[in-house]
Design brief:
Distance between the termini: 28 Å
Helix content: 25-40%
Number of helices: 12
Number of strands: 11
CATH architecture of the largest domain: 3-Layer(aba) Sandwich
Largest sheet: 7 strands, mixed
Shape: elongated
Strand content: 15-25%
CATH superfamily of the largest domain: Vaccinia Virus protein VP39
Number of domains: 2
Length: 354
């Protein structure tokens, strides 16, 4: 049995995937108290509301609740890394950012708690920063594997590239690559849901609610085809930003998804039509929070709010958009479980006969 503590756990995407893949998650740590209900309700693990900077290695060891093999997992907030290419800021100029320190604290906790295994997920741009090199130094006593993974190739219906790292004290390790016969698609994830108009809600599912659209945005989405761009519109539909040089480089803004392709990366603003290619493939609206959650591979049974609570788009959009896809957590768990079994079998074969 591998016992895990999930740093920066959010509402539990990585945790849920790890559990589904056969790992026992004892606790998740996050500073956002709004994550407590969905994390604990769906995962039967303790939610620790704390700033990671206040956590020590001894705290992690206590949370593992016993001996055996242990895992420290986490995905530090990635905003300063993912905005690197747009802002042009170099690593040296942003090392004071709070999130840089969070990655360093992840490394500190590895050194203090000495887990059997480590896994980290983040944006590919993290590879370009010195903080990643420093993080690797905390894994000097581990066998380390890391690679940029295309999520669509492992059963996640998103065009989402993520840096995945695995480390083991026991021996060489790598990510398990499942055989995928067909790429996961938008249709496969959300095609079964009831149709909605903009501003309408499904009476049987509070999360399947579509934001309202202005009259101008309704005209825009009706003029859009799946996979198309705003460059195909009549000039009277163009926004002021489209006329700017910077705006012309973002053709997916106000775009529709395609049924038989993966979605774009689900972000914290995915419920807004003007925030990316978040228009429904053939309904005149943006995707709903339920659709976003399914594209993040959360099961339809995952509870995000208590019965009767108000569904707040800004809050749940942020939590769902920031989550690690559940399917990715499953693949990581399967990789670790297979690795441990292989190491255990090898040790038995090498054991002298009496």
């Amino acid at each position: 049995m591998i016992r895990c503590v999930d740093l920066f756990c959010g509402l539990g995407g990585l945790t849920h995937g790890l559990i589904q893949g056969g790992i026992r998650v004892e606790a998740g740590i996050d500073i956002d108290e709004q994550c407590r209900f969905p994390f604990e309700q769906n995962n039967r693990a303790e939610f620790v509301s704390s700033d990671i900077r206040d956590i020590t290695g001894d705290d992690i060891i206590r949370l593992w609740k016993g001996g055996g093999r242990t895992l420290l997992a986490g995905c530090a907030p990635c905003q300063p890394f993912s905005t690197y290419s747009r802002t042009g800021r170099k690593a040296e100029t942003v090392r004071s950012d709070k999130a840089w320190k969070l990655v360093e604290d992840f490394g500190r906790l590895i050194s203090e708690a000495s887990p059997s295994f480590v896994t980290m997920e983040n944006v590919p741009q993290l590879l370009d920063h010195r903080v990643f090199t420093k993080f690797l130094s905390s894994l000097a006593n581990y066998h380390v594997w890391y690679q940029v993974v295309e999520c669509a190739n492992i059963g996640i219906p998103q065009k989402r590239k993520r840096l995945v790292l695995l480390a083991s004290r026991l021996g060489p390790i790598s990510l398990f690559s499942p055989r995928i016969n067909e790429t996961a698609t938008v249709r496969g994830a959300i095609g079964h849901l009831p149709r909605l108009e903009a501003g309408e809600s499904d009476p049987g599912d509070a999360l399947h609610s579509a934001c309202r659209l202005s009259e101008l945005n309704l005209r825009r989405i009706r003029a859009s085809r799946a996979g198309g761009t705003w460059r195909e519109w009549n000039t009277d539909l163009l926004a002021a930003c489209h006329a700017k040089a910077s705006g012309s480089t973002y053709p997916s803004i106000y775009g529709r998804m395609e049924w038989d392709s993966p979605s774009p990366t689900i972000t914290t603003q995915c419920f807004g039509y003007g925030n990316g290619r978040f228009g429904h493939p053939d309904q005149d609206r943006a995707i709903t929070l339920r659709e976003a959650a399914l594209l993040q591979t959360f099961p339809s049974s995952y509870r995000f709010v208590r019965d009767g609570d108000t569904v707040r788009f800004s809050v749940l959009g942020r939590l769902i958009g920031n989550a690690v896809p559940v399917r990715l957590g499953e693949i990581v768990a399967e990789s670790l479980v297979r690795h441990l079994r292989s190491i255990t079998r090898s040790a038995r074969k090498e054991r002298p006969q009496t």
